[in-house]
Amino acid sequence: MPALVLLGAQWGDEGKGKATDLLGGSVDYVVRYQGGNNAGHTVVVGDQKYALHLLPSGILSPGCTPVIGNGVVVDPAVLLSELSGLNERGVDTSKLLISGNAHLITSYHTTIDKVTERFLGKRKIGTTGRGIGPTYADKINRVGIRVQDLYDESILTQKVEAALDFKNQVLAKLYNRRAIEPQRIVEELLGYAEQIKPFVADTTLILNNAIDEGKVVLFEGGQGTLLDVDHGTYPFVTSSNPTAGGACTGAGVGPTKINRVIGILKAYTTRVGAGPFPTELFDEDGEKLRVIGGERGVTTGRDRRCGWFDAVIARYATRVNGLTDFFLTKLDVLTGWEQIPVCVAYEIDGKRVEELPYSQTDFHHAKPVYEMLPGWSEDISKAKSFAELPKNAQAYVKALEEMSGAPISAIGVGPGRDETIEINSFLS
Ligand code: GDP
Ligand code: IMO
Ligand code: MG
User: Fold this and answer.
1) What does the UniProt entry say about where the protein is found (predicted)?
2) Domain boundaries in the chain?
């Protein structure tokens, strides 16, 4: 089983960090392939809790090599502070590899992210303000700065000047902000160069060789399927491809090398930031999910919007990612409801719709069609096998599996590493 992708099947925060960490002990490489420090992946090991933003969750497994692929956007200040934070807690980070082709988030990208949001006013996306969109925009516009540019001062200076030429006009004339002095940015970036240098590598070569040698490589997505810039709820999305194809472009590995694609799926739904969300709850059930589920953003501290499970979305995730398995998380959070509504289809303009509509207008008008499933009251957090779950919890899982289009191979019953029920091994 040389290569697997693990990604978010909903709007992010499904529990990818926990799932990656769980497999980290048995894999050789864990690779982030897109996004940046907009992600917040929580890993709980014993009584220790880690919040990872830019670094792959495999960094907490001593035998595993963590890799930041070419598709990731790297804020060098965040990178160094995350590394030193882990070092202070006794985590060895020396094996980290960073692609020389990854793009850098500079201070002007975070500035532009924030002023653009302010300018959008009511129409804002609700970004994390980490400079993600402007950095990917520069990459596509071919005015980005890459990690490798840190090691050629003359090229770096030319590129920063070229990038700021246009941006300074926009900042000064449109946003009424002070222009940014290119030399200040160059010096800021050069200040990080030496500390980052030992990690910089040709990661596509290393990863392809590793797969060819039969090593196990796990690609860890940030965000989720519905936040994908192509397949998500555009424009309320992030600026990268968290879907499975993103692992190929964001790491330089061909699709023929990938054997398994695991969708991380919360037993209910959450979303942070603006955008449509058919099963969103505005009542006490929503509040209960938020409190019991601890649904507060790891990166921005914002409350997450909460709603019931949406099988239309899960089916869509199966389709656009070619999912082979699901890892269902946070089943324990649903303990205590007498009945649990599950969205099985939408009603759009009086018609029942079974698949996610491609039209933004239709999706904005989608009303959930619910089926009620019986709940359970027993504590399930100590369950170690599917058979140990109460009958109604088993039936809930089986119903979700049937509606979602791929087998549920693991179930999370708590945040800890060992609070997982394994049904089918991901590594066989
Ligand atoms: P990620 O961004 O997908 O890695 O997810 P986050 O870390 O942002 O949010 C998931 C939250 O749920 C974290 O606080 C995890 O510790 C927690 N978590 C993950 N799996 C489970 C589970 O099965 N049960 C419970 N109760 N919490 C979980
Ligand atoms: P993890 O990896 C949930 C959301 C933001 C906003 C939109 C665009 O922890 O699941 P951006 O800063 O990326 O330009 O913001 O995407 N968003 C996330 N929501 N989990 C995440 O990451 C997210 N990363 C970005 O809230 O709506
Ligand atoms: Mg998160």
Assistant:
1) Cytoplasm
2) 3-87+203-422, 103-198
**Ligand 1, atom 12: nearest CA belongs to which residue?**
15
16, 42, 128, 302: which to mutate for ligand 2, most atoms within 8 A of CB?
A: 128
Residue 298 marked ligand-binding: yes
Q: How far is the CA of 285 from the centre of ligand 3 (A)?
A: 22
| Residue 12 marked as a ligand binder | yes
User: Is residue 1 pLDDT above 80, yes or no?
Assistant: no
Answer whether 393's CB lies under 8 Å from 380's CB.
Answer: yes
CA distance 244 to 71: 13
pLDDT per residue as tens digits for the range 266-314: 999 999 999 999 999 999 999 999 999 999 988 889 999 999 999 999 9
Q: What is the CA radius of gyration of the chain?
A: 22
Ligand 3 centroid to residue 70 C-alpha, Å: 21
Fold type of domain 103-198: Adenylosuccinate Synthetase, subunit A; domain 2 (1.10.300)
Mean pLDDT, the chain, rounded, equals 96
Atom of ligand 2 nearest to the CA of 300: 26
Question: Which atom of ligand 2 is closest in space to residue 132's alpha carbon?
Answer: 14
Beta strand spans in 221-354 (E): 260-266, 269-271, 305-307, 309-310, 325-329, 339-348, 351-353
* Exposure b/e, 278-306, CB count within 10 A at least 16 = b: bbbbeeebbeebbeebebebbbeeeebbb
The alpha carbon of 113 and the centre of ligand 1 are apart by a number of angstroms equal to 27
The answer to the question of whether 225 is labelled as a binding residue is no
Task: Give yes or no for a contact between 317 and 280, defined as CB atoms under 8 angstroms apart.
Answer: no
Mean pLDDT confidence for 60-70: 96
28, 41, 266, 310: the active-site residue:
41
Give the pLDDT confidence score for residue 229 in this predicted structure. 98
Is 266 catalytic? The answer is no
Query: Exposed e or buried b for every residue in 31-56, given b needs 16+ CB within 10 A?
Result: bbbbbbbbbbbbbbeeeeebebbbbb
* pLDDT > 70 in the chain, percent: 100
Domain 3-87+203-422 has CATH 3.90.170.10: yes
**Closest ligand to residue 411's CA:** 1
Using CA atoms, how far apart are residues 38 and 357, in angstroms rounded to an integer? 27
